Amino acid sequence: MRDDETPRVDDADDMRSHHERMMAGDLYIADDPAIAEAQGVAVRRMARFADEYHRDPERGQEAARELMPGVDPSAFVRAPVYVDYGTNIRIGARTFVNMGLTALDVAPITIGADCQIGPHVQLLTPTHPLEPGPRRDKWEAARPIVIGDNVWLGGGAIICPGVSVGENSVVAAGAIVTKDVPANVVVAGVPAKVIRTLEEDGERAAP
Fold it and tell me: Taking the model in full, what pTM does it have?
């Protein structure tokens, strides 16, 4: 995050709860009882999904949608999944999510249709102030992540707060994406950079 994108701590006249601040996308401190309750619900639902999936992967999809109500019925999610809340995640039709997804959904995470999400991908919306003082005082915030339709995120890819990945693009395995990715490209590296342009019906490059 650039310094000029860091939200400022201004709590003097703000009568909102920290949960309300979080939901509004503003800086907050995660000591609100409503936040703890929502995280506790997510922990129990993650455990139920993992248990149900290991018994029967198809039947486990019902538990996946209980954990993440925004999962399209035609999508398929492998366990385990690690989330903050689950309620801020949307996964589009026919998308496949491989094992070990970490989706920290303090801000909304939107995954489009027909995506391939590799194993151990991380979608990280939380941010922290760059200034030492507010960070020491435990202020934090979050910025949304958007993954377009027909995107392939290779295994272990990390998508940072506020990043959008354009439709049809490929993020190579192990890439760390700190800036928006345009449509129809392959990005790779740390930080990720465009290494190839893709034709919609042309060559499919393996990350």
Answer: 0.89
DSSP state of 23: H
DSSP assignments along 30-72, one per residue = S--HHHHHHHHHHHHHHHHHHHHHHH-TTTHHHHHHHH-TEE-
Q: Are 188 and 150 in contact (CB under 8 A)?
A: no
Residue listed under structure tokens 């960070």: 135
DSSP type of residue 135 = H
CB atoms closer than 10 angstroms to residue 53: 21
How many Cβ atoms from other residues are within 10 Å of residue 171's Cβ?
28
Encoded tokens for 1:
């995050």
Radius of gyration of the chain (CA): 18
Q: What angle do CA 191, 195, 200 make, to 5 degrees?
A: 125
CA distance 4 to 72: 36
Helix (H) or strand (E) holding 200: none
**Residues 164-186: tens digit of each pLDDT:** 999 999 999 999 999 999 999 99
What is the C-alpha separation between 88 and 94, in angstroms, rounded? 19
Over residues 13-58, the pLDDT tens digits come to: 778 989 889 888 899 998 889 999 999 999 999 999 999 999 999 9
Give the tokens for residue 189.
């590296």
Name the residues annotated as catalytic.
128
